[in-house]
Write a structure and sequence with these properties.
single chain; 181 residues; alpha+beta; 9-stranded antiparallel β-sheet; 4 helices
């Protein structure tokens, strides 16, 4: 029987949804304080695939993705989701808003997949701990993204997929550097 091996470090990213670019900038600053240097930032995407967040956060929502230079252990995902949930509340208080004004979706890339954290259970989600689940968003082929039946509509967007393919290329080069040391 083989001994269990440590997991390969993963590329941490976070999605930000908000209606106000000032809120997105503040979230970006606070995320950098928590997780270190940001090595990639996506363009601002319109988030008009659902009205799920409109009642809380208003109309004209935008989405931005960030990735962080420092690789992390995948088993930290539930802890990171709890931290970003607290950060959403801190930002709401800082802006003296009555309702939620930002949604933070942390996740990570492996060489083969993109995983995000969620507090919502569903049949394809894997329980981690403390009410947090891992949601397999999509798979990576050699130079392509393979969506799944449950892939969120904004993650099916070509620009979004191109962004994550670029982050994956950078991540794979980081892993190669780590293993050649």
């Amino acid at each position: 029987m083989a001994d269990p091996q440590s997991f390969v470090p993963v590329k941490l990213f976070c999605g930000i949804i908000a209606s106000n670019e000032r809120t997105i900038l503040r979230a970006k600053e606070r995320l950098a304080q928590l997780y270190g240097e940001i090595d990639s930032s996506s363009p601002l995407f319109l988030f008009d695939y659902t009205d799920y967040y409109e009642k809380q956060m208003g109309k004209n929502l935008k989405r931005k993705f960030l990735s962080f230079k420092k690789l992390v252990e995948p088993e930290r995902l539930s802890e990171i989701k709890q931290e970003t949930n607290r950060l959403e509340e801190e930002i709401r208080e800082e802006f003296q808003a009555h309702q939620r004004i930002v949604n933070l979706d942390p996740g990570y890339l492996t060489p083969a997949s993109l995983i995000i954290a969620t507090a919502k259970d569903f049949s394809h989600r894997i329980p981690l701990q403390n009410g947090i689940y891992a949601h397999l968003e999509f798979l990576f082929g050699k130079d392509e993204v393979r969506t799944l039946d449950w892939t969120y509509p904004d993650f099916k967007c070509k620009d979004c997929q191109e962004y994550f393919l670029e982050v994956r290329r950078f991540y794979l080069s980081q892993l190669n550097k780590e293993t050649s040391k």
